[in-house]
Amino acid sequence: MQEAIGNFRKRDYWIVENLEYVKPSFRLQKCARIINELTKNRSCELLDVGCGPAALRQVLNPNINYHGIDIAIQKPAPYLREVDFAVSEISFDQKRFDVVTALGVFEYMGQNQKRKSEEIRNVLKPGGKFIMSYINFGHCRSKVWPNYNNVQSIADMKKSLESVFQLERWFPASHHWRPKQPGRNAIPALQMRLNSNIPLLSPLFAVEYLFICSPRN
């Protein structure tokens, strides 16, 4: 299944595409819920890689100090940096972070996947958490859009992550009979709390997976 090539979309594409993600999506809200539970009320630093319009910031608890990097920043802010991180190093003013997220990013990293994973590991504090999403290209109705340049199975992604991180948990972000995030007819309230793999069902109907990792000791 694997198809990893190096054709990266540039800023003129993403400055338009990012406008589709101004409101927090289901996936983003679920990720925020996990982060809020993991951090509790502790003050912590978070880096959102591929932050788009920084919608994740809207649904995080106030104890989380948000930073974001993206190739196309819509509205400049002190907590945002415009970086083409597909070709430049993932970093933010030499800071290190308690949490790093990459939601809807690695499908576009081509052959840079392992290097970008290592860069994320390098900006994590000891004991920090890396949370990422990845599309389930094994979905029974999956479509591989031309924009994706890193197409592989969930098993291969899991194996790749385990070469860099300690993989703590991985589970579907949501299930749907079509490869899209759940709407009213897909019981979103229940799926928001479902953090488990369902045998037989998940490989065919998981839209995408969330991975929770930590740096290897």
Topology, pairings included?
Blueprint: E1 3-4, H1 11-17, H2 26-39, E2 44-49, E3 64-70, E4 80-82, E5 97-102, H3 113-123, E6 124-135, E7 150-151, H4 154-162, E8 165-175, H5 188-193, H6 201-205, E9 206-215
Parallel strand pairs: 2-3, 2-5, 3-4, 5-6
Antiparallel strand pairs: 1-7, 6-9, 8-9
Count the beta strands: 9
Question: pLDDT average, as an integer?
Answer: 94
CATH superfamily: Vaccinia Virus protein VP39
Tally of structural domains: 1
- As laid out across the biggest beta sheet, the strand order is 4-3-2-5-6-9-8
What sort of overall outline do the alpha carbons produce when their principal axes are compared? globular
Would you give the CATH topology?
Rossmann fold
Q: Specify the helix fraction band.
A: 10-25%
Beta-strand share of residues: 25-35%
Oligomeric state of the chains in view:
single chain
Largest sheet: number of strands, sense, barrel closure: 7 strands, mixed
The appropriate CATH architecture is 3-Layer(aba) Sandwich
CATH class: Alpha Beta
Distance between the termini: 31 Å
Order of helices and strands: EHHEEEEHEEHEHHE
**Radius of gyration, Cα only, in angstroms?**
16 Å
Please tell me about this protein's structure.
The protein is of the alpha/beta class. The protein has one domain: Vaccinia Virus protein VP39 (Rossmann fold, 3-Layer(aba) Sandwich). The mean pLDDT is 94.
Could you give a quick summary of the protein structure above?
By secondary structure, the chain is α/β, with parallel strands linked by helices.
